[in-house]
Each structure stands twice: as C-alpha cells, then as structure tokens.
Amino acid sequence: MDISSVSTYNYLPGRLITINGLSEILNLKYFGTSNYVKFGRKAGRFIIDNKVGIDFYHQQMNADLSGQQTNHTFWLAQPYYNPDLIFKTPTINANIAANISVGRQFYNGRTKNALWIEPSFSFRYILNAVSSLYLNYILNQSPTMLKGIYDTPLFTSYRTIESGIGNFETRTTHQAYLWYDYA
User: Fold this and answer.
1) How far apart are the C-alpha atoms of 47 and 137, rounded to whole Å?
2) DSSP string, the chain
3) Environment class of residue 134 by beta-carbon count within 10 Å: exposed (0-12), middle (13-18) or buried (19+)?
4) Residues in Cβ contact with 90 at an 8 Å cutoff, skipping those fewer than 6 apart
5) 98 vs 113: CA distance, rounded Å
6) C-alpha span between 37 and 30 (Å, rounded)
7) pTM score
8) 170 in helix, strand or coil?
9) pLDDT of the chain along its 183 residues, tens only?
10) Among residues 115, 120, 162, which one has the least CA distance to residue 143?
11) Which of 1, 35, 57, 75 shows the smallest number of beta carbons within 10 Å?
C-alpha cells in the first residue's frame, strides 16, 4: 500500500508599467493538493493495481489596471479511480490502465461537472539480450485552469495584452509511440 499527499501554495505579486505608461498590479494565488492511496494484488503473472485519490486546485487572480479592478476565482475538485492491469513474463511486459475522474469546476460563479476517462496501454517485447520492441498509447484530458479561462484583457509584458477564452474547456491529446531499443 502506498499513501501520498502533496500540497503547494504560491503567491505571486507583480507590478508592470506598460508601454503607454499605465500601471498594472497583478496578484496571483495558487493552492493545489494531490492525495491518493494505491494498493494492489499479484495473481500469477498478473498484477492488479488500484489508485484512488482526489486532486484539488484553487487559483485566484486580482488585477488593477490604472484603477480598474478585476477579480477572478477558479477551483477544480477532481476525485479519481485508476485501475491498472499488468502482465509480466520473462519476455513480455504489458499494461492496460484507465484513469477515471469526475471533475467539478468553478469560475466566477459558474460551475461545470465533467467526466474524464483516460485509457493507456503499453507493451514491451524483449527480442534478445540487447534489443526490445515497445508500443505505447496514452489519452490525456486536461481541464483548462485559470490562465486559460480568465476573460479580462491583461498585460503579460509591457506591450502585450492577452485574454483567456472565458469558458470551461478540456484539452485532449492522443500519444502513440512505437520504437525499437538496441542497447
């Protein structure tokens, strides 16, 4: 059994003078915690691992651009379950897993619930003492955090203004790898 808990807090105050002489004060606060319990069982050539946890992120951004103030608050609570099935022989190592999570997002009074299922697969075949063949696939779904959501124009340098999309969004990536290893 493996138990883990990691928490982080950051406070980043800042002041920026823009190209046209405006003054922007930006205060960013971030708190994040990731907690899980992992347990497993071996049955012959199979290993069954289970990971149950919850991630929580809270972000706050306060901006003052020459007297005009904006405040943004974002949080994400994400409980998850990750079953993992591993098969091992002297020449084969195969792994099938899925991260199943339910997320509740909050941004400035709006909320969204989401279900994310992220399967993964890996396979390794040892051809001989010096070479192996690998095949991996991963689907990753990442919810947009405050930096991508905030919908107020802010200076990110003395002459560049950026604004987020103002909506909840999930970024999905597919990764597939096939390679041959010769040592």
Assistant:
1) 20
2) -EEEEEEEEEEEEEEEE-TTS-EEEEEEEEEEEEEEEEEEEEETTEEEEEEEEEEEEEEEEEEEETTEEEEEEEEEEEEEEEEEEEEE-SSEEEEEEEEEEEEEEEETTEEEEEEEEEEEEEEEEEEETTEEEEEEEEEEEEE--HHHH--S-EESSSS-EE---SS--EEEEEEEEEEEEE-
3) middle
4) 126
5) 19
6) 24
7) 0.85
8) strand
9) 999 999 999 999 998 888 778 888 999 999 999 999 999 999 999 999 999 999 999 999 999 988 889 999 999 999 999 999 999 999 999 999 999 999 999 999 999 999 999 999 999 999 999 999 999 999 999 998 998 888 888 887 878 888 877 888 899 999 999 999 998
10) 115
11) 1
Task: Name the maximum alpha-carbon separation found in the chain.
Answer: 70
* Burial zone of 176 (CB within 10 Å; 0-12 exposed, 13-18 middle, 19+ buried): exposed
Structure-block tokens of residue 153 = 């124009």
